[in-house]
């Protein structure tokens, strides 16, 4: 199983020619937590597209040299990726660039289509040739196909949105327009703002707007298409209010940065609330509360506030290492926990510690951290998790593609506590998720199995990269399927 975080998108349109790539670079830096596998920027210089994309972190791909080589322009789009579909190869780097009969476009995408396999099968059988293995190319194909029978790129995107199912926050750039769109459920976040000198910027999270000095204007509504072009800013709402909003609740729990505000709810405050709930639901006598850096810190603070147990910095994180999941493969990940985290012995020795983290997936990380604390002399370690147990795969971008590796699918809470070596374990109860965001309007299918869209049969991350011998569906059955 591969389990990864998702992507970040960033776009800019400026009233004057500027070094827009530099702004995108800073924006992507602020979105790096959403994906560390690859990144890229495409600049639009009066209809001429120039790009730089590669595997690696923003700081690795964009040196002063590579950044300088990108021309000035008045539009640009950027992307950071941690692939949820498609392998970690160069050809899956985004933004995707397409030349089609009516022009060209660059596309940056966050999310997963839940009907990607079906759409790709149909396209391939009608002659399409795919160069990448990610969902994004399917979107690009459908938009360009729609473009052939529509009068504008936004019209084409609107047509495509009637066909696409699942999660997509998109930033699309044509020679003359920058277009942002959020799927009708609003699974993934997308917002926009403006800089003092009149540039409009759009990004997955508001923290990226702040990073480039832009003032947040608003989130895109689920289903909204926002067009920045020669006619100014036009909002198209034909796909709005057709579905109930379902922003991924895990954005608040784990993905997003605490200084971001998504759909009007502060990520930091949502995490504090989660910690407070945990303290009420799973109280315990202890000497200190310690958060697992970084995503467990805010919830740990909330636990401390509610319980009155002092919040302590018991764990130190090496600042120069990415998220645990930066390298694929169980073996590599196991080693990284020790490189990434270290317990402060003087703080935890002889103490009863409440350890707060955002989630347990396989249990490997939690087990390692509990051990770190014990080795540092902690007397008791009580694990509190600011999400419910993961029980179901996600089809919308949180890459959990198999139940077999989810520890909560195979073990009770008590057994899990034993496996990770904790004295006790408590999760956030599913009904309490609504308290995090102050109401409904979120997707929590990975916890409760309530999927907003039909779910696909094949969700493996490498589903487009199978060897011939492994292919589940021979051509004959595909052809039979479309008759
Ligand atoms: P483990 O239980 O060892 O599989 O890892 C759990 C840790 O991985 C959590 O504490 C999170 O910080 C992180 N995590 C949880 N869900 C995801 C996800 N979908 N993508 C990447 N990292 C995740």
Account of the protein in words:
With 483 residues, this protein is α+β, with helices and mostly antiparallel strands. The protein is built from 18 helices and 24 strands. It has a 7-stranded antiparallel sheet. β17, α10 (297-307) and β18 (311-312) form a beta-alpha-beta unit. α5 (135-147) packs across α6 (153-161). The longest helix is centred in the middle third of the chain and has 15 residues, at 267-281. The protein is globular, with a radius of gyration of 23 Å. The model is unreliable at 1-5 and 467-483 (pLDDT under 50). Bound molecules: adenosine monophosphate (AMP). Adenosine monophosphate binds at residues 3-5, 254, 295, 324-325, 357-366, 398-399.
Largest sheet: 7 strands, antiparallel
Strand line-up across the major sheet? 3-2-4-1-10-9-11
Q: Which percent band covers the strand fraction? A: 15-25%
| Number of strand elements | 24
Mean pLDDT: 90
Alpha-carbon distance between the two ends: 33 Å
From the helix content, strand content and strand pairing, which structural class follows?
A: alpha+beta
The general outline is: globular
From the alpha-carbon coordinates, what is the Rg to the nearest angstrom? 23 Å
SS element count, helices = 18
How is this structure best summarized?
This protein is an alpha+beta fold and 483 residues long. Adenosine monophosphate binds at residues 3-5, 254, 295, 324-325, 357-366, 398-399.
């Amino acid at each position: 199983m591969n389990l990864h975080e998702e992507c970040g998108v960033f776009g800019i349109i400026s009233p004057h020619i500027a070094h827009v790539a530099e702004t995108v670079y800073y924006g992507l830096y602020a979105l790096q937590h959403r994906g560390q596998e690859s990144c890229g920027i495409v600049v639009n210089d009066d209809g001429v597209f120039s790009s730089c994309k590669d595997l690696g972190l923003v700081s690795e791909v964009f040196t002063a040299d590579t950044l300088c080589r990108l021309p000035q322009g008045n539009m640009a789009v950027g992307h950071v990726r941690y692939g949820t579909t498609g392998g970690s190869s160069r050809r899956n780097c985004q933004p995707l660039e397409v030349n089609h009969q009516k022009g060209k476009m660059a596309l940056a995408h966050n999310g997963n289509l839940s009907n990607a396999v079906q759409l790709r099968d149909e396209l391939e059988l009608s002659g399409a040739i795919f160069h990448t293995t990610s969902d994004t190319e399917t979107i690009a194909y459908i938009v360009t196909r729609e473009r052939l029978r529509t009068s504008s790129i936004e019209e084409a995107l609107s047509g495509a949105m009637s066909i696409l199912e699942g999660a997509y926050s998109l930033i699309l750039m044509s020679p003359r327009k920058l277009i942002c769109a959020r799927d009708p459920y609003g699974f993934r976040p997308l917002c926009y703002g403006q800089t003092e000198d009149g540039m409009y910027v759009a990004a997955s999270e508001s923290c990226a707007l702040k990073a480039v000095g832009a003032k947040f204007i608003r989130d895109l509504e689920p289903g909204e298409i926002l067009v920045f072009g020669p006619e100014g800013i036009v909002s198209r709402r034909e796909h709005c209010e057709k579905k109930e909003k379902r922003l991924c609740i895990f954005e608040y729990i784990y993905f997003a940065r605490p200084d971001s505000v998504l759909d009007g709810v502060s990520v930091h405050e949502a995490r504090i609330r989660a910690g407070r709930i945990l303290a009420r639901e799973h109280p315990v006598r202890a000497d200190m509360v310690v958060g697992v850096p970084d995503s467990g810190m805010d919830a740990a603070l909330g636990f401390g506030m509610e319980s009155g147990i002092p919040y302590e910095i018991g764990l130190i994180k090496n600042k120069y290492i990415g998220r645990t999941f930066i390298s694929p493969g169980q073996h590599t990940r196991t080693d990284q926990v020790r490189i990434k985290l270290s317990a402060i012995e003087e703080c935890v020795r002889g103490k009863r510690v409440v350890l707060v983290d955002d989630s347990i997936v396989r249990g490997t990380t939690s087990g390692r951290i509990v051990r770190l604390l014990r080795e540092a002399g902690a007397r008791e370690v009580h694990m509190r998790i600011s999400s419910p147990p993961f029980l179901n795969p996600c089809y919308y971008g949180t890459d959990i593609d198999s139940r077999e590796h989810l520890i909560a699918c195979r073990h009770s809470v008590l057994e899990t506590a034993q496996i990770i070596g904790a004295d006790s374990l408590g999760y956030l109860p599913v009904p309490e998720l609504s308290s995090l965001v102050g109401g409904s309007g979120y997707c929590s299918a990975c916890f409760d199995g309530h999927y907003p869209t039909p779910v696909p049969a094949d969700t493996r991350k490498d589903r487009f990269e199978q060897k011939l011998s492994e292919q589940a569906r021979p051509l004959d059955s595909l052809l039979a399927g479309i008759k």
